[in-house]
Design brief:
7-stranded mixed β-sheet, Helix Hairpins, 46% helix, alpha+beta, 17 strands, 3 domains, 488 residues, single chain
Length: 488
């Protein structure tokens, strides 16, 4: 549809005429242009995108989502709107409903530019006053969406053309409309724009020959002075700047959404913690009272199971709360230089009884270790998690070695066991919440959250966690923390 007008806003009340469409402010009325018969509309079997690829096989194609494609199209329209001289904008529409949504913006553009709208694909909705010009999508499938935007003018040539790459892909789950992937050609090369212009004209000669000459003349006039290298660079800079601004706006919106979701999650976890702790404390308290008076071994074993399950649930609640606080940025740390050896000795003393029950030997090989910058309570929690895992997943009569080494900017604490070890695939799943690698079936207690909390605690203290595990040899967990000089 070739749309033209002479003034920006006041001509909204006048007719805007063109290919099979006549628009009046406040409504749409039928055009005098003869409606193209159904047979003509089916004559073109290839999409504009396919024709461009055939005309220039060297065109670079990329995949982008529909939301990015929409944003890119609006940026191209902005270039036309802000251009000092009259331009031609060719824009593709699948059917009249799309035109109805975009009509006001295109009317504004038409006040100082020529707008060519190509309708293809589905039949327009009845009463819209839209007549096809005969271009068809590659398959005619309503899900297959063509995208075509061509901006031509003195010193301006931008091409944005694509076809829905997801139209015939079978997916296990539906894809959001904004996330549909398109195969796209996007270029500021005037030669690519000339290819796009020829494709449009050739398609019209087949399906709407009475309009082809006028469109060809309009495109030729707009392309009479192709952009210089400087002008093409400015157009590219404007497009990139617009995309960066949109990405930044999207990022800020996502941050706000995530912050709100995190706040809701923190509130939920806090309330659930209170609601769970009250009955759990009661269960543990009554269980301990029952254990004092029981003499029958079977009864005592039953109460011990109640106490074990209760302590397990309390530990899980604590770990979930820690994860929630860390993710919400609400975990308060007191990062101070501190000697490593004292913290290691305290943690080893706490797990010694558990290790003794399984005949596991503990080896403190820290020696005169350098200081680290950490929160003492959280570092102790990290070491207890690692040592208790080394005890639980070790062989009967195994060994646990704790060593410390120094790099130029970090102190590396290593907890190494002589357990069965893990495969590479198992190590990759190790930090997944509630993933216990089949330990529950082997009767090993735990929540599957200890290592998740450990890594997050180390991260917020400025360190990192690495795993070195070999099947049949054992596992080493290395915690690297910032090194510090102790005050004299």
């Amino acid at each position: 549809m070739l749309v033209s007008a002479t003034e920006r806003c006041k001509n909204r009340a006048q007719h805007v005429t063109g290919w099979g469409l006549k628009v009046r402010a406040g409504g749409v009325e039928e055009s005098a242009v003869t409606r193209i018969p159904e047979q003509g509309r089916l004559a073109v079997s290839h999409s504009l995108f396919d024709r461009m690829r055939q005309a220039d096989p060297e065109l670079r194609v990329m995949s982008v989502t529909k939301s990015t494609l929409v944003a890119s199209s609006h940026l191209v329209e902005s270039l036309v709107y802000e251009h000092d001289e009259r331009c031609v904008l060719v824009s593709g529409f699948q059917h009249g409903r799309h035109w109805a949504v975009e009509r006001d913006r295109y009317l504004d553009l038409a006040s100082e530019n020529d707008i060519i709208a190509v309708f293809a694909g589905q039949e327009p909705l009845s009463g819209t006053g839209v007549d096809h010009v005969g271009l068809r999508l590659r398959t005619g499938d309503p899900l297959a969406q063509e995208w075509f935007v061509l901006a031509l003018g003195p010193g301006l040539a931008v091409t944005l053309c694509g076809l829905d790459g997801d139209a015939h892909v079978r997916r296990l789950a539906p894809v959001r409309e904004a996330d549909r992937l398109f195969d796209v050609v996007w270029s500021v090369d005037p030669q690519v724009a000339q290819v796009a212009a020829r494709v449009v004209v050739e398609a019209l000669r087949e399906s709407a020959p009475e309009q082809a000459a006028a469109v060809e003349a309009s495109l030729a006039a707009a392309a009479a002075r192709p952009p210089t290298i400087t002008e093409a660079a400015r157009a590219t800079e404007a497009l990139l700047s617009g995309m960066v601004q949109r990405l930044e706006a999207t990022r800020l919106r996502e941050q706000q959404v995530l912050a709100a979701a995190s706040a809701h999650k923190s509130t939920f976890l806090s309330r659930m913690s209170h609601e769970l702790r009250t009955p759990l404390n009661a269960i543990l308290g009554f269980g301990q009272l029952l254990a004092l008076d029981l003499e029958d071994p079977e009864d005592r074993e039953s109460v011990d199971q109640i106490l074990t399950a209760g302590r397990h649930l309390v530990a899980m609640v604590d770990e979930i709360l820690d994860i929630g606080r860390i993710e919400a940025g609400e975990l308060h740390l007191d990062l101070q230089p501190m000697p490593v050896h004292a913290v290691v000795q305290g943690a080893l003393a706490m797990v010694a009884p558990l290790a003794a029950e399984r005949g596991i030997a503990l080896f403190d090989q820290v020696g005169d270790a350098p200081a680290v910058v950490a929160d003492e309570a959280r570092l102790r929690q990290v070491l207890l998690n690692l040592l208790s895992n080394a005890v639980k997943y070790n062989h009967e009569g195994g060994q646990i070695h704790v060593t410390v080494s120094r790099t130029p900017d970090a102190v590396r604490l290593c907890v190494r066991d002589t357990g069965p070890g893990m495969t590479g695939a198992q190590v990759e799943r190790l930090f997944t919440p509630f993933e216990r690698l089949g330990a529950a079936q082997r009767g090993i207690s735990g929540t599957g959250l200890g290592l998740v909390v450990t890594r997050q605690l180390v991260d917020v203290m400025g360190g990192q966690v690495d795993i070195d595990s070999r099947v049949g040899i054992g596992t080493a967990v290395i915690v690297a923390l910032p090194a510090a000089d102790m005050p004299a």
